[in-house]
Structures are given as C-alpha cells and as structure tokens.
Write a structure and sequence with these properties.
Blueprint (H helix, E strand, L loop, with lengths): L4 E6 L1 H7 L5 H10 L1 H10 L11 H10 L7 H15 L1 E3 L9 H14 L6 H6 L14 E5 L1 H8 L8 H15 L3 E6 L1
Antiparallel strand pairs: 1-2, 1-4, 3-4
Helix pairs in contact: 2-4, 4-5, 8-9
Length: 187
C-alpha cells in the first residue's frame, strides 16, 4: 500500500474552536461515526479499545473536551485526523497516494515555487497541526495551509501543467470557494 498524502478542505477556525470546546455532543458524534475504523486502528497499532484506556477514543476525548494531553503523540495525531475528517471534505489525492515524502519536497515544492506560490507540500504534511497537542514521533505527519494561504495561491496554480499541480490547484479552488484551509496528513 505505501505512504501518501491525505488532504482535507476544512474551516480551520471552526476546527481550532472545536478543540477544547467541551462539546461532548460532537465528541460522541465523531467517535460514533468512525467507531469501526477507530477500533481497527487501535487494534492495528496495539492500542486498547477499552473505555478509559489509552487509545484514539481517549485522545478524541482529550482534544475536544480540553483535557490534559497525557497520551502518545500518535494517538492525538490520528484523533485529530478523525476530527478533520468529520469537519472537512476529503480532497482527491490520487497523484499523492502512494508517494514518497522526498518527492514532495524535492520535486513538487520547487514546481510550486516556480509558479510563485507560497504554499509547499512539505508544509502541508510536516508543518504541524493548527492546534496544540504532543507531536507524533513517527506517523501521522500533519500540516496545514490557512484559508489566507489558500486564497493567495489559488489563482497562481490555475496555470499548472502537471497532474500533481493541477490536483493541488483543484484543492485550492475547492477550499477557497468556501473560505476554508487545507489540513494534510502523511502516513
């Protein structure tokens, strides 16, 4: 299967507001909608599915309810991904899944720069989450482009000629149309 980029158009301000909001109804909705996938992920990574034990479910609780982050950073990274998926819209990632991370920084980033864009794929996957939690030591890698960055570069990328840059241009157009940013994950 390999590693790759998963990108989502999302209202980053609302996402940041959700984290620490204490909104138990949304916390329950996220955990309920993705219950099977979260349980499978916990199993795959050797984490518990028991209530109150360290797991992605517990990390979702911590993030939304504003509880003290005491878990492994990877748990928070995957929990954050479920919050993003719940709040945002998945963007077509075919040119970037599977994809080696050095291809993004060594090939795609210079192509973006050549078009005058300020965004970088390396920033989308390694720039950090827009909310604070312990960083994962390994996966998932997380980054984001703000709505302002998206809006600033949407027009520039319409001149793109490669499938990869046309895909990014589509991401920017879709996010900009609704005033959203883009949050990316690499794993």
């Amino acid at each position: 299967m390999g590693y790759g980029v998963m990108a989502y158009a999302v209202d980053i301000d609302k996402l940041v507001a959700l984290c620490g909001s204490g909104d138990d109804r949304t916390r329950r909705a996220v955990s309920g909608r993705f219950r099977d996938r979260i349980q499978r992920l916990n199993d795959d990574l050797g984490w518990s599915n028991e209530r109150g034990e360290p797991s992605v479910f517990t990390a979702i609780n911590h993030l939304v309810l504003g509880e003290q982050p005491t878990l492994d950073g990877a748990m928070y990274g995957y929990a954050f991904k479920f919050l993003v998926e719940f709040s945002g819209r998945f963007l077509d990632n075919r040119p970037f899944y599977p994809c080696r991370s050095h291809y993004l920084s060594d090939t795609i980033d210079p192509e973006l720069a050549a078009l005058g864009a300020g965004i970088r794929m390396s920033g989308l996957i390694f720039g950090g989450a827009p909310v604070a939690f312990p960083s994962p030591d390994d996966f998932p890698a997380i980054g984001h482009w703000t709505a302002a960055q998206v809006a600033a570069d949407a027009e520039r990328l319409r001149e793109a000629s490669t499938i990869e840059l046309k895909t990014i241009s589509g991401w920017l157009d879709e996010a900009a149309a609704t005033g959203r940013g883009v949050v990316g994950f690499y794993h």
